[in-house]
Design goal:
single chain, about 425 residues, alpha/beta, D-Maltodextrin-Binding Protein, domain 2, 11-stranded mixed sheet, Bact_solute-bd_prot1, signal, Extracellular solute-binding protein, SBP
Length: about 425
């Protein structure tokens, strides 16, 4: 009899425990988190580690990272899922996707879901340059995370060989051309074995081109994303300069230069000076078999680079509980310590000034001063080109750039055609 009673009590206790466990599981809030990376590797491991640490501190929230391909893949998948009723709750997508996401009604303003004092204060914590295309209509739509600028890298060994000061990169367009001639090398048959300069032009050439237009003191679009200035004479001048690096000066490879292979070309000595994202800083530091320099981009009328990279966005289709959980997750991912470590681990710019005051970041910069170049360049940075119907509007510009760089068109008519197309697309938003 005693055994029977004990067994009954044990069964009752087990059932009670299972019900409690089920209730606890049911109380958990789950977030699907789209993150733009196409393959596994160090970045996915870092994100997985962050998610595990967050869940340990917030056991009431489950975060499910979904590695969603390129930035382009991610926004396409996210919007398709949103229209199909199965959107993620939070995603990292390009800052330039902001107007498109707003127009689709896909995202909520962070201000509208911020509940705690830390959440409400969060938008004020970032560099103004990164907030320029994170806010619209008086609201914050994106929270900066993996943000960047374009910086210049140069091979110090090649500089020494060419009789140049290896500690000083070019400061102006004229110096780029002059140094490029000294750094370009040919073999006995006259074939180029090392180009002096390399500016990639595949993938998103508009971004690299915007550095040139900024340096020529002209904006490609209005702040409200409704008007472009592709046919401005200063824009034409900037494209002519880029084209002439290869067509006239012969210090840059002709045709389209691949974005993805540019760091490798640098490692292999095929290009002495390159422009690429500061997000490649850690990659280049780990893989360059020579000493290299890092500097701000050169000036013509002024210095300058567009910002770039991704923001956190919270989807409007999330439940109230999921929006609250997403605000908690985004705020946790954006602390000064985490922003600093992310910058150290990846090379992206730590997105808030107080991140640079953390002991970890101060030690990092002390041992690797080049890490501070992108931060310092923020004083000269502008918002990355972003408009309504952004992909269509930038595609018009990209097509013009690539036509000119391949010799299929002249700068002025190509940019006039791009402007006409952009004007047609944007007319309904004015």
């Amino acid at each position: 009899m005693f055994r029977t009673v004990t067994g009954t009590l044990a069964a009752a206790l087990l059932a009670s425990t299972m019900v409690a466990g089920s209730a606890f599981a049911a109380d958990k809030t789950t977030l699907d988190f789209y993150y733009p990376v196409a393959v596994g590797g160090p970045i996915t491991k870092i994100i997985d580690g962050y998610v595990a640490a967050f869940e340990a501190e917030h056991p009431e929230i489950d975060v499910n990272p979904i590695y969603s391909g390129s930035y382009q893949d991610t926004v396409t998948k996210a919007l398709t899922a949103f229209k199909g009723g199965d959107a993620p709750e939070v995603a990292v997508m390009l800052s330039t996707d902001m107007y498109t996401l707003i127009d689709e009604g896909a995202i909520v303003a962070f201000d509208d879901i911020a509940a705690t004092d830390d959440q409400k204060a969060l938008p004020s914590k970032f560099y103004p340059a990164f907030m320029a295309n994170s806010q619209a209509g008086g609201k914050t739509w994106g929270i900066p995370f993996q943000r960047s600028t374009i910086v210049a890298y140069w091979n110090k060994e090649a500089f020494r060989e060419a009789g140049l000061d290896p500690e000083k990169g070019p400061d102006s367009w004229d110096e780029y051309v002059a140094m490029g001639h000294k750094l370009t090398r040919t073999d006995a048959s006259g074939n180029v074995i090392r180009w002096g300069v390399q500016i990639p032009s595949s993938g998103f050439p508009y971004w690299l081109f915007q550095a040139l237009t900024t340096q020529n003191d002209v904006e490609l679009a209005s702040d409200d994303g409704t008007v472009t200035h592709y046919d401005d004479p200063k824009v034409v001048e900037a494209l002519t300069f880029w084209r002439d690096l290869s067509a006239k000066e012969k210090i840059h490879a002709p045709g389209i230069v691949e974005w993805g292979t540019t760091p490798r070309d640098f490692f292999e000595g095929k290009a002495a000076m390159i422009w690429t994202t500061t997000g490649n800083l850690t990659n280049i530091r780990k893989n360059a078999p020579f000493e290299f320099g890092v500097g701000m981009l050169p000036a013509k009328a002024r210095r300058g680079s567009p910002t770039g990279g991704g923001n956190f966005y919270v989807f409007s289709s999330a439940t109230d509980a999921q929006k609250a959980a997403a605000a908690t997750f985004v705020t946790w991912m954006s602390t000064p310590e985490r922003a600093a470590q992310w910058g150290i681990d990846t090379g992206y710019v730590a997105v808030r000034p107080d991140a640079w005051q953390t002991p970890a970041m101060q030690d990092y910069v002390k041992g690797f001063p080049a890490a501070a170049v992108a931060r310092d360049q923020l004083d000269y940075a502008v918002a990355e080109l972003s408009t309504h119907e952004n992909q269509r509007v930038t595609t018009a510009l990209n097509n013009a750039l690539q036509a000119v760089l391949t010799g299929a068109a002249e700068p002025k008519p190509a940019l006039e055609a791009a402007q006409a197309e952009a004007t047609r697309i944007l007319r309904p938003y004015r």
